[in-house]
Amino acid sequence: MGIFTRAVRNLSRRKIRAMLVVIALGFCMAIMIALPAGIAANQAAAEKLTGDLGNTIAQTQSIINRTMTQIDVSLTPTMSQGPSVSSGQSGSSGGPTTSGPGPEYGGGQFGGGSAKPMNASLYDDIANVSNVAAVAPILQVVEGHNVTEHPSMIINGVQTETGESFNVTVPDYIIYGIPLDSTLIDSYPILPTNITEGRNLLPGETGKVVLSENSSAYFGKGVGDTVSILGTDFEVVGIYGSTGVADKQLAYMNIADAQAITNSTGIETSLKVFAANSDVVSSVANDISALHPDLNVNTAQERLSQLQQMQSIYNSQLENAQTTMNQTQTQANGETLIAVSATSVIVLFVMLYTVRERTKEIGTLKAMGASNRTVMSQFLLEGIFLSFTAGIVGIAIGTVASPFLSSILLPAVQTGGIVINAGTSQATTANAYAISPELILIGLGASVLLGVIGSLYPAWRAAKIRPAEAMRYE
Amino acid sequence: MSEIVLKIEDLSKCYNPGKKEVRCLSKLNLEVKKGEFTAIMGPSGSGKTTLLNIIGCIDKPTKGKVLIDNIDVVTLPESQLYKIRRDKIGFIFQSFNLLPYLNARENVELAMELAGKFKGERTARANELLATVGLSGRENHRPNKLSQGEQQRVAIARALANDPAIILADEPTGNLDMKNKQEIVKLLANLNIKQGTTIIMVTHDSQVAAHTERMVLLKDGKILKEKAGFLQAQKANAQQQTQTAATSQSN
User: Fold this and answer.
1) Predicted complex ipTM
2) Cβ–Cβ of A368/B58 closer than 8 Å?
């Protein structure tokens, strides 16, 4: 039975009081632990987002650099033109058409997206433009499911439908037919890049697909599997990692296969035009635009400018997010300071009360020959033990409730349109809040330190009590 | 001639010195021999407990000397005084003052723990002392599981733990019923006779005081008179018998 046992037994004498104090202190400790965990989680989420955006921009930049001579040509979609056309599966109503009231190059809207079918004469006209080195026809068909939207607005406090309802195709995957002509695919960037599994498509190959990671996940198929697309079986020969925003759901295949399964023989939805060199890109683009006013002509230079704009917006958003993160850090520092102060003050008052309550016992100990140091050590130990127990409880609470506590105590951070907020973040997971061993050690260390700080004065007071006065105390 | 274990010279104690002064002890002189069982008696406010506290080094006099085993404890700083309390004094209080979170043996051991004795030695000595005061088999009981008489016995065992020069008992029978009162007085007297323990007991109960060797009557902070108690006659008889036996044996 040493001084440690006496300290422990003293605390356990009044179990309910000790328990309440430990819980109160435990919550303070939990806040101290949860805040750094939340900050770290937010920081990690912000860094991940920054990294993701940076990667996307870098990849897009790389593609643009590789395709400096590439001009994307498509027909500007017009809502009034022809029926909505797709391949005839879930979200479609029949085969595409090239005839109709539209311009001579094409007809109905294709696949519910931005692409519109073109006819062969457009291909020939563009191929004949001066300084055009090659033209690659592309067939892009969006496969998805239709959702009927009812436009509405609140009128006099009542949600009221306004106008006719319309169908919207929510894309599941995109059939992306490309010409597997060796002269084209060997010389120009048409095939998907960043193959992560298997291989790329080969010249003249049919019945094969290369899926994006997203579409692979959608079909639940990997390399070597057979995937059924619009009722036709294809062998998956490769999977590619995304290289940008636009290619996340694509299923690359021979354009002939794409035309066959979508009943679109002889039809393409866009053209990749390659200029003879980067100096003539602008003049070639102008010449193509002059062919028809409905043509949507997009050069790498324009895409680069769009990318720079996008980059600037992202940078500004990240800067805002960092500013908010800094404010969050300041707020967290303040809250931690309050929790630290509260812990010390609670220990201080509890121990002061204990000393007062046990004045006679202190007198007895001194009469028996206990030194000032012995008395001080015992009360200091009791304070430390109380605080240490609270530290353990706090770590337990912090481990379980860290996301919740952080979401209450820390403000949300907006980054690139994604809300980062401890506990509710789209960008952070529960794992991000895992209390690290370092944090546990720091928490336990802090609990001991705060126990010392809080009980130092009461213990000193206990040591300085004059035994004769203590013996008279009632 | 018996050794003087306590010598008090011109001891004065007043509260609020220089202001509204209350004089508690006034130029008091007292000597206590080793092995003596002394009772200090007097009405309330006569300075009994103040005198005991000063002897026990838990209070300081305003003037005078207090020599315990020839050490003037009045001049000692607190850093030395606690050692005197620990090694030379054993306290017995009216309300026992046992630590409620320790059992009987641990309460006795605590005094030895403060003196830096080892665990094995402490436990053996505590068990022995508890047996001496008649508490064998009650060692593991906490104070709230002991009767008041038993609690005071534990307190006596605790006071004896470090084999002190003087046992100071402040109204040790004040909280006890008649039966326990007699038993505790008997126990103290036995300890005094058999082990030669020096005991100074403060009491206002003349019947209890009568069982000691020497009665000192205090009034207004001064010794009014001294009387011999029953124990002195018993000790004299015992000594005479011992001497007679020794003489006849030598003849």
Assistant:
1) 0.90
2) no
Name the residue with higher pLDDT: A440 or B7: B7
Note whether A363 contacts B58, CB cutoff 8 Å. Answer: yes
* A260/A256 Cα distance (integer angstroms): 6
Q: Which amino acid is at A112?
A: G
- Contact residues on chain A for B102, CB-CB shorter than 8 A: 1, 6, 9
* Single-letter amino acid, residue A214: N
pLDDT tens per residue, range A3-54: 888 888 888 888 888 888 888 888 888 888 888 877 777 777 777 777 777 7
Which residues on chain B are in Cβ contact (under 8 Å) with A9?
101-102
Q: What is the pTM of this model?
A: 0.64
Size of interface A-B (CB pairs under 8 A): 69
Task: Provide φ and ψ at A404, rounded to 5°.
Answer: -65, -50
Question: Which is nearest to A339 in space by CA: A25, A55, A91?
Answer: A25
User: Helix/strand/coil (H, E, C) string of A83-140?
Assistant: CCECCCCCCCCCCCCCCCCCCCCCCCCECCCCCCCECHHHHHHHHCCCCEEEEEEEEE
* Count, residues in chain B: 251
pLDDT digits (tens, 9 = 90+) for A366-408: 999 999 999 999 999 999 998 899 889 988 888 888 778 877 7
By C-alpha distance, the chain B residue nearest A368 is B86
Could you tell me the CA-to-CA distances from A293 to A90, A289, A290, A299 in Å, in that order? 33, 7, 7, 16
Chain A contact for B59, CB < 8 A?
Answer: yes
Strand partners, A228: A233
Nearest CA in chain B to A14: B101
Residue of B nearest to A363 (CA): B58
Which A residues in the span 323-382 are in contact with B, Cβ-Cβ below 8 Å?
360-361, 363-372, 374
A7 touches B at CB < 8 Å: no
A17: Cα within 13 Å, side-chain hemisphere:
12
Cβ atoms of A261 and A243 closer than 8 Å:
no
SS3 state at A154 = strand
Model pLDDT, residue A87: 43
CA distance A350 to chain B (A): 19
- For residues B238 and B216, give the distance between their C-alpha atoms in angstroms, rounded to a whole number: 23
Residue with tokens 């006719």: A164
Specify the higher pLDDT residue, A471 or B170.
B170
- Please provide the DSSP assignment of A251-300 as one string: EEEEHHHHHHHTT-TT-BSEEEEEESSGGGHHHHHHHHHHH-TTEEEEEH
Cα(first)–Cα(last) distance of chain B, in Å?
A: 26
Residue A64's pLDDT is 73
C-alpha A42: how far from its chain's center? 11
Residue whose structure tokens are 């309440």: A20
CA-nearest residue of chain B to A8? B101
CA dihedral A306, A308, A312, A318 (to 10 degrees): 100
A217, pLDDT greater than 70: yes
- Measure CB to CB from residue B58 to each of A2, A367, A372 and give the nearest one: A367
Strand order from edge to edge, sheet including B222-228: B89-92, B166-170, B199-202, B37-41, B214-219, B222-228
CB A57 within 8 A of CB A311: yes
Other beta carbons within 10 angstroms of residue A194's beta carbon come to 15
How buried is A430 (Cβ within 10 angstroms: 0-12 exposed, 13-18 middle, 19+ buried)? exposed
Amino acid at A471: M
Written as six digits, the tokens of A163 are 């106008």
Asked if the model's pLDDT at residue B37 lies above 90, the reply is: yes
Percentage with pLDDT > 70 across chain B: 98
